[in-house]
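User: New here, please read:
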Amino acid sequence: MRAPFTAEVLPRLSSAALAAGLIALAGASCARRAPASEATAAATPSPARSVSPSPAAPAHAADAGYDLRPAERAAVDEFLRRNPDLRVATDADHRRSEDDGMDGLYGVYHPYFVRGDDNDDGLLDFVIGFVRRDSDRDTPWFSVVVFAGKADGSFEPGGFLEREISLADGDLSLDRDAIVVTPDVSEDLTRRYRWDPSKHRHVFVRDDATEDSSAPPASQI
């Protein structure tokens, strides 16, 4: 038999109902707040990791396809390690024209590599061209570098003769003791450099051959 619903029971039921309601309300509030907290965390990007670009690996002497001797190859590789923005100029960098006639003049013709005794000391030197690696294929920028031979068969560190010049239509050569830079082999214009023992370096020889100047022509001509 069910107990009668009396006034004494009512306060106890009211307290229990109130406690249950507060618990339910707190749970619902937490449930409502949790997704907002998760959304805030999701909307906050994690800090980006700083990644430094890797430096370009130096080019190699062997990349040019020349038949370099071991001491020459070692000298060029060391130069490229010190100048990683350059690579060795190749035969393919030369724009051949139908009337340049260079193949008929030389048995083996490399436009940007030549050996000889350019400082008249009885030792073999070599001159070689380099190209900036970031150059546009249609307008490459060349630098001309001289490697002087040493008595032990090795070479002095490469020294710049000209920097960042237009040489795609030209070549390098040695005329007795002068280094000749020809911007365009289809034309007669050349630039000559002769070794000056008193200054211990190459000097630019003017066209009239009456005056030497230590100041080379402007780059990027």
Notes: The longest strand covers residues 125-132. The chain has two domains: 8-39, 61-213. Confidence is low (pLDDT under 50) at residues 5-13, 28-32, 209-213. The CA atoms of residues 178 and 194 lie 5 Å apart.
